[in-house]
Amino acid sequence: MNKLDEYFKENKSDIVLKLKLIEFNSILKDLADRLNSDGDYSNSFNEIILNLTTIRDVCKIVRPKNILEIGFNRGASATMWLLHSKAKLTSIDTKIPKVSVNTLNKNFKDRLSTIEMNSQDIIKDKPEWIGSFDLVFIDGDHRKEMIVKDINTALKLNPKYILFDDYYHIAHMHEMQRIINEYVKENIIEIIKNSYHMQCLVKVIERKE
Ligand SMILES: C[S@@+](CC[C@H](N)C(=O)[O-])C[C@H]1O[C@@H](n2cnc3c(N)ncnc32)[C@H](O)[C@@H]1O
User: Fold this and answer.
1) How far is the CA of 34 from the centre of ligand 1 (A)?
2) Of 48, 67, 72, which is best to mutate to test ligand 1, by the most ligand atoms within 8 angstroms of its C-beta?
3) Which ligand 1 atom is at minimum distance from the Cα of 74?
4) Which conformational region is residue 64 in: left (phi greater than 0), alpha (psi within -120 to 50 degrees), or beta?
5) Residue 130: exposed, middle, or buried by beta-carbon count in 10 A (0-12, 13-18, 19+)?
6) Angstrom distances, CA of residue 12 to CA of 5, 17, 54, 59, 121
7) Nearest protein Cα to ligand 1, atom 22
């Protein structure tokens, strides 16, 4: 019995998630083949299933219509957002593989826009984005000064919610949590859920100028 079968034997009622995981796996396998990578997604089953359930739960809370993702990489989390919501997803990264975009467009027609850009240029280059996202997912550069910059950018966009990746990442969780807590203390955001695997969902209280 493989890990997938084992998981769903224990979580029998999770049919929808099972179907999404099967779909996710097939999209990601397609991507791995096209990117000529070793398809390392299959090696990190636990991470995938936890991320998939997290993103499902976040979508249930936020019910997003427009999501901005900072950090597309190969498109794994983008696939999860598209699978679990009906939202339009705008995903940025400094470099975006064309094959990922083609694969995702094939599966989620018209719901994905990808833009090669630096997150630091968002407010300068895309002022029309202000007020247009209900959720910003921050998963870009995880150095502390860059996390602060991305939070401030996200706040200027005035979303209802922000989801931070790597809240429990062994390498930078202390820094991440310290930074997020400073914003909480200033009453700018409030933590909605931080027990997710790696992620922390916050609600924006006040717009930071
Ligand atoms: C951890 S990966 C994102 C993983 C992706 N969300 C996923 O789950 O598949 C981080 C990504 O952020 C991108 N990145 C780093 N700094 C950035 C910046 N200043 N602006 C935009 N993207 C950035 C990197 O190129 C990298 O692809």
Assistant:
1) 20
2) 72
3) 9
4) beta
5) middle
6) 10, 10, 18, 22, 46
7) 93
- From first to last of the 209 residues of the chain, give the pLDDT tens digit: 566 666 667 766 666 666 777 777 777 777 666 665 544 444 455 666 667 778 888 998 999 999 999 999 888 889 889 988 999 999 999 999 888 898 889 888 899 999 999 999 999 999 999 999 999 999 999 888 999 999 999 999 999 999 988 777 777 778 888 999 999 999 999 998 776 666 778 888 865 45
Distance 119 CA to ligand 1 centre (A): 9
Q: Where are the domains of the chain?
A: 3-204
Binding-site residues, ligand 1, Cβ < 6 A: 70-71, 73-74, 76-77, 92-95, 118-120, 139-141
**Topology (CATH) of 3-204:** Rossmann fold (3.40.50)
pTM: 0.85
